[in-house]
From TrEMBL:
Part of the ABC transporter complex MalEFGK involved in maltose/maltodextrin import. Probably responsible for the translocation of the substrate across the membrane. Residues 72-265 form the ABC transmembrane type-1 domain. The lineage of its organism: Bacteria, Pseudomonadati, Spirochaetota, Spirochaetia, Spirochaetales. It comes from Sediminispirochaeta smaragdinae (strain DSM 11293 / JCM 15392 / SEBR 4228) (Spirochaeta smaragdinae). CDD domains: TM_PBP2 (cd06261). The chain crosses the membrane at residues 12-33, 76-97, 109-132, 144-164, 185-210, 244-265. Belongs to the binding-protein-dependent transport system permease family. MalFG subfamily. This is Maltose/maltodextrin transport system permease protein MalG. GO terms for biological process: transmembrane transport. PROSITE patterns: ABC_TM1. The keyword Transmembrane helix applies.
Amino acid sequence: MKRKYRYLAKIGIYLAAILILFYTVLPVLWIVFTSFKTKMEIYAYPPTLFPKIFTLGNYKVILSESQYGMYFLNSIWITLIATALVMSFAILSGYSFTSAFSYKGKSSLMIFIIIARMIPEIAIIIPMYFFIQNIGLFDTKTGIILMVSAMAYPLAAWLLKSFFDDIPVSLYDAARIDGCSSFSILRKIILPISGPSISSTLIITFLTIWNSFLIPLTFAKTIHTKTFPVAIAELAYGEYGVNWGSLSAISILAVIPMFLLGIFAQKYIIAGLTGGAEKG
């Protein structure tokens, strides 16, 4: 009897898992297949999941016959530069916040970073708006890069600080005895052994900046500065209705960089986030 109940319980678990998978994957599949449908087939009734005739027309419109190709390049450019900027500062500050260093104001700086991380973008968007206008960086890539970098920096700095804390202090002391400066220790010892941790932080930072919406929406007003998330919002709330084919195509294009990054860097994410699990 117990064996029968266990068998039925396993069947229930598998059915629940299948239902959850179906509920999660179906909307994604619907968007993917809709991006390959013609406008007539998208509005046909009854609706169909698989397109009768596959067409790349929606992607052609997005990439070559509209301004959205420029928006995609803007997102790539802004994300790459901002990620590099954030990682450079986060590595240096995360290294300086470890237990290997002791200086006046260290605790205050760490608390300030925590507070900066907790403040939502919407709470500071108005003072940021006036500040960026006053310094002449409104509607510029430079202004957007600086703002999204400032929003992504606190998390990156604290992640790296946590990873660097897992490195034994004796390793720092041994390097200093051998005559290494603080920067030499970082360059020759800390960075080489922190590859997975730095990689996982870089990926999280990249995804955070790539998905940034409020800042580009507020401070980007022309084709030269608007990003892909803003373009998706414009398509979703168009003046003459929603173009579902183009909206589906641009959504797939927005997901592709993150999907590829996640696939190729999966092992680094797992290794970095669990790097300190076996410490001690």
